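Notes from hallway chat w/ T.B., transcribed later so I don't forget. T.B. wanted the structure written out for a chain they're using in a teaching module, and asked if we could keep both sequence and structure tokens in one place. Agreed to drop them here.
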Amino acid sequence: MQHIKAKNVLPKEIIDLIQEYIDGEYIYIPRKEGNEKSWGQKKGTRHNLKSRNIEILNKHNNGVSVRELAKQYHLAEKSISRIIRQEKKLCA
């Protein structure tokens, strides 16, 4: 989450009102109910991990060992095995 300067998006009157309650401190304003985004949706992290996991399964199906995949992706062998197992289950 990146910070946005209030003076760039809010009218001065609202900034003055907020300063009555909290002056010079950070404040988190949550999304409107119903506008929430799930984890990884904003920056595409979820999609990137899904693509990586499918790539791992495909390489494994083409003969690359779990040990070699762990080295290539800088993950534990246990994590690679879990990814392969989950992706096989999803493809079945």
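Follow-up for T.B.: The chain has five helices and no strands. Might be a good example for the class.
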